[in-house]
Write a structure and sequence with these properties.
The chain is of the alpha+beta class. Helices cover 22% and strands 34% of the residues. It has 2 helices and 7 strands. It has a 5-stranded mixed β-sheet with strand order 1-7-6-3-4, with no helix packed on it. A two-stranded antiparallel ribbon has the order 2-5. 18% of the residues are buried.
Length: 73
Amino acid sequence: MKTVDIKINTEFIKLDSLLKFAGMVETGGIAKEIIAEERIKVNGEVCTMRGKKIRPGDRVQIDELDTEILVVN
């Protein structure tokens, strides 16, 4: 699995915004859809909260992609 580091300059970023910021999805609507379909894992657990606060050190993965996002600051 490939890990991509995404740097944020704030305390946290919301999950749907992170997916857009990292280029994993094109729109917020697509982010909302794949989160609702339980295709996202945060720190290894399925997450269905699109407003979940993702903080530095958290890992986010989309099921069908072989890429993991690691949030750093």
